[in-house]
Amino acid sequence: MRARVVVRLKRGILDPQGSAVKRALEGLGYREVRDLRVGKLLELELDGAASAQARGRLEEMCRRLLANPVTEDFTVEIVEEGTRPNLP
Amino acid sequence: MRARVVVRLKRGILDPQGSAVKRALEGLGYREVRDLRVGKLLELELDGAASAQARGRLEEMCRRLLANPVTEDFTVEIVEEGTRPNLP
Asked: How far does A9 lie from chain B, in Å, by closest CA?
């Protein structure tokens, strides 16, 4: 099965990387950017079929390693086979 | 309007960060992880309404700054108002 994990900074946590990218875009003339935040997208291929247990293990991976619970939130999404693999 | 940009390493480009995370997960006992790749998710808030022109400018931002055209692919997605903001 395939899965996607998105890890984002929590609301209220400063995002210096996002601010730097926003400033760089402004410098190139893209003044319409009001806010920009950068997160991580992890795309996983896992042995076994999609199940509640597999999702539970993914959430456990997030809590234990993939996300920092103090500063970050995460979402886990199981990718159905046959859907467009290229969409976020 | 809001938009999401996903920047991923192209197929065939080594992902040392993804390999390191995969090894760390294996070390914690998550041996079901067959492959893991790490990408970037940029979430933007922009002045103005969604339009073909706004999307064009976003794609231009990707080509000029947000993605490395040699090693990375990108996808641009306009986020419809009222959809769940938390999904990748």
From this structure: 11
